[in-house]
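Thread: "does anyone have the structure for this chain?"

Original post by V.I.:
We have the sequence but no experimental structure in hand. Need at least a predicted one for the grant figures.
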Amino acid sequence: MERERFHDRAEAGRLLADRLRHYTGRDDVIVLALPRGGVPVGYEVAKALGVPLDVFVVRKLGVPGYEELAMGAIASGGLIVLNPEALEALPISEADIHRAAAAELRELERREEAYRGGHDPPDVAGKTVILVDDGLATGATMRAAALAVRQLHPARVVVAVPVAAAETCDDFRDVVDEIICSVTPRPFRAVGLWYEDFSQTSDEEVRDLLLRLNKRAEARH
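Reply from O.Q.:
Generated one for you, tokens below.
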């Protein structure tokens, strides 16, 4: 699909849903969106497919003293995914990993409480999980999410995004069962360039979208 730019994340989500029609109405499918920017996209996907929506929070674990470098990530449920290249190249101890994980776990739990309001995370064992974000640049956060979700024993892991670098999409083929990138522009440069409105999504918007979709689901039942 060739196009200039998406108007906003909602339009991007509706167009992405068209590429996922084969999952419509299936009771073994769930959309997990990466907050915050992935949630407006995931909302439109889940609404179009008639499947549940939840969040999957991922926090980077920074190397002590060089926090911008990732030695791994911690994801929903306290699942830790480590970056073997960083661990081999740098003098990182187990204590360093535990300290970073403990700090990020507090923020992860705060966000989950803010978004989910005390509800338990969904059980994804045996299900098809569609992981959604508003785009992939390096793909590091989504890769951590996919590897963490794998530890929860789903039947199938799908990554779906509106826009990404073509090489990043290709890199996911060994990690997930299916990768869907609606648009892979060249040159790619940055996710935000492909949206007319790329304003930050707030915690309140995330909460509102999750509640709205859950209410729709309850009304159907």
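V.I.: this helps a lot. The chain has two domains: 9-54+125-213, 59-116.
O.Q.: and The longest strand covers residues 66-75.
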